[in-house]
Design a protein that fits this description.
Strand order of the largest sheet: 6-12-11-10-9-7-8
Shape: globular
Strand content: 15-25%
Number of strands: 19
Oligomer: single chain
Number of helices: 14
Largest sheet: 7 strands, mixed
Helix content: 25-40%
Structural class: alpha/beta
Length: 427
Amino acid sequence: MSRIINESDLDTTLAAVLRIKPNVATTYDVIKLDYTSKGEADPVDVAWQLLGSLYAQKGIAKEDIKKFNLGESSWGATSKIQEVLRKSADPLFRAELLDYPDTNASALVKTIADLFQLEPYNFVKLGGGEFDKYPVTIGTGSNQLLELVTKAFVTPGNFVMVHNPTFFRFEEAAAHINARIISSDLDENNGFLWSESNRDDYLEKLSDPNIDLYWLCTPNNPTGTTIPLEHIEEIVSVASKHKKLVVVDEAYGEYSDANGDKRANSAVSLLGKYSNLFVTRTTSKGLGLAGIQVGYGIGSPEIIEIMEKMRLQFPISTISGLVANVALQDVEYMDLVRSETKSAKTKLEQALSDKYEFYPSETNVVVLKGKGNVAGDFLREGIIVQSLDFIPSLAGKGYVRLTVRKPEANSCLIERMSDVSSGEYRG
């Protein structure tokens, strides 16, 4: 039924479909609009229903609404995955799909082990054969691993430590087991860059018996900033003396990897020295495969054994495993994506620097700041971005996160925002 919605209804609706938290969507300042409720919907559909008449006046068709909000790679996955997709049409391969997937995802694990130069720590006898066991676990996206590691190592009622702002899933995973949060704030006046002060905050808290787990996110989500590897090692080293677990989320790691070498800039390089470290990664960001939901964790054998006992028997499908395997092996393609993303980001920042303040980022997402209702200004122009008002310390300050896309889409954004100055809508 069509009806006029009030501010509260709009907040709930936009929060759900634009994937932001409740009590945030009102910052879009788009209320008392005719809206037909249809339950779950794509952000584009909702934007069209809420702002269709305004878009019509501006000549923006529904298919011209652009999503810059979720951090996926606009370059998509390597074309080599087409080999897997073609194979899926083969009758013999389709017969293979009658069987359950390899519960160990052995081929994928071996590829990850090779890329990160990991040695086997054991071998397993199965079905009359033997295979090497590597310190790798597979998850249905890295989000599942974040949940599992929290359940495995955090006592309900105790604390986990994060830096702020960071990926909201850490806090959600803690909330699911009634754990609490202690945070170290990244300095807003220093571009949200990690600093020695943040390192010292962590070092000071490592002896706290009520903190069970210490999260580090590098490159950080939503800011795209990185944590120096030497600081990570300092934290992990002291944590090991207190028998504390450090989890490093490298979901955007492909953007900070050295060309042709996944290990060099990763916290994985520390695993030979420390047994209290767990590193998570995903194929959803730089590799352009959010749709297959494949994540993986790398840690000491002790941690991996615990995680393996907690995971699903079949964490990923046969086809997902094959696609992820091919994508991970095409290192040259990821090097190209990294280079082209950096170039596109530079041009986008240069074009909008007179309107918004950009913060440093090593990834395909950037934080920018303007005056007034920034997310609403973008939405009115048919551009969906991620408001950062759900982060208490940033609420109401005009921060949004923007995903860098290919030059053609970025040019569209630049053109549409030409009538907007410093986040103050003039149209």
